[in-house]
Amino acid sequence: MNIxxxxxxxxxxxxxxxxxxxxxxxxPTMGALHDGHLSLVRAARASCDVVAASIFVNPxxxxxxxxxxxxxxxxxxxxxxxxxxxxxxxxAPAVEEVYPPGAVTWVTVEELSEKLDGRSRPGHFRGVTTVxxxxxxxxxxxxxxxxxxxxxxxAIVRRMARDLNLPVExxxxxxxxxxDGLAMSSRNAYLDPRQxxxxxxxxxxxxRAQSLFDQGERNAAKLIAAAREEFAAENLARLDYFEIVxxxxxxxxxxxxxxxxxxxxxxxxxxxxIDNILLVNSGH
Length: 284
Ligand code: PAF
Description:
The chain is about 40% helix and about 20% strand. It is globular, with a radius of gyration of 19 Å. It is built from ten helices and nine strands. It is α/β, with parallel strands linked by helices. The strands form two sheets. Strands 1-4-3-2-5-6 form a six-stranded parallel sheet, sandwiched between helices. A three-stranded antiparallel sheet has the order 7-8-9, with helices on one face. Helix 3 (about 75-85) links the parallel strand 3 (about 50-55) and strand 4. The longest helix is centred in the middle third of the chain and has 16 residues, at about 125-140. The chain folds into two domains: about 1-175, HUPs (Rossmann fold); about 185-275, 2-Layer Sandwich (Pantoate--beta-alanine Ligase, Chain: A,domain 2). Bound molecules: pantoate (PAF). The site of pantoate has 10 residues, from strand 2 and helix 6.
């Protein structure tokens, strides 16, 4: 695996691959890799000739009181895992390489960026779309791979690619879970054993909605009310939102007959976790 820290070098390597007619896949990450990330790498490996990954803890997507300084960093371990998955190129730039001093230009997907996590994390999605647009311009991938765990991010990145006519296919891979249902996340590393147990309430609340849906309930308010009961019983978890929305517009839906995204965010101690499921009407 070739590791590049500068835009000039990684761009030259990616362009050389594309000149040879190779299909180039990009897996953008912030490092602290887990099996969820590796599933994206495997999907890229399976459908692309050349696989590029990036590791960049993007300051622009962290709020002033968020966990940028303590965000888990494990560069050596990450590199070993990417090598093992046969990643060809790794782009791991410094902050100054990505954000030239005095940069004031942003990519914002309006409206969508204020929904779900965007409501409690102002500016977060502007930071995500700006860095993802930069990565697309630097790497020029044919396909880019994202995890369904960040469902709002998926909707917003897809919308950005569409609205800006970016020539990149956005591929979304399913959530990877621990054996007990907890969605894999780099932030799970912050949880102590007690919080790790409490964190299961997110998945439990989603399963409650899923099981009512499977029994035929189509009223979103009823699914939400039942799911919220799980949080009432777990008083150390602070529910941020539990919403049932259209997966593309992120607008709330009242009736889930045509399927919907069920998304939850909650604080466990000082750790903010998110999770979601897609309700799919198998009768259709
Ligand atoms: O999902 C993430 O890890 C980040 O939001 C991303 C897409 C790498 C942008 O910094």
